[in-house]
UniProtKB/TrEMBL annotation:
Originating species: Chloroflexus islandicus
Occurrences of domain HIT (ranges): 4-111
One biological process term in Gene Ontology: purine ribonucleotide metabolic process
Protein name: Protein hit
Segments crossing the lipid bilayer: none
Amino acid sequence: MTSVFTRIVRGELPAFKLYEDDLTLAFLDINPAARGHTLVIAKPELPGLLDLPPELVAATALTTQRVARAIVAALQPDGFNIIQNNGAAAGQVVFHFHVHIIPRWDGDRSVKLWRPGTATADDLQVVASEIIAHI
Ligand code: AMP
């Protein structure tokens, strides 16, 4: 199925485009969490981070930094979040790789990503070992 973002890449749907190169495209989110909320996509329709070949990981990271720099210069936020959802459980709705750049202003409370939990040193050691075994 063709994603909504592929249709933007093809020019079949409108978007407020900010930057484009051969591999990436940046445009404003249609339902922004904040003024200037931007999406950076990989042009090929790949669902998530783990599906990207190295050149697309690099290209989307570079475009994210480039556009974030422009957002900071233009809008002068107090900070910004970089968010990249993978899977429905993580809140992904459009299954075409994209990075959110969300400008933040002191006290805006527009994004809260997690509730801090607790873990023992043993818990941390066990999960660290599980992950390290796959690196
Ligand atoms: P995610 O939950 O990470 O999959 O986020 C998908 C994002 O895409 C949401 O923030 C939507 O507001 C945004 N979105 C969906 N359709 C469009 C569109 N046609 N133009 C711009 N942003 C869109």
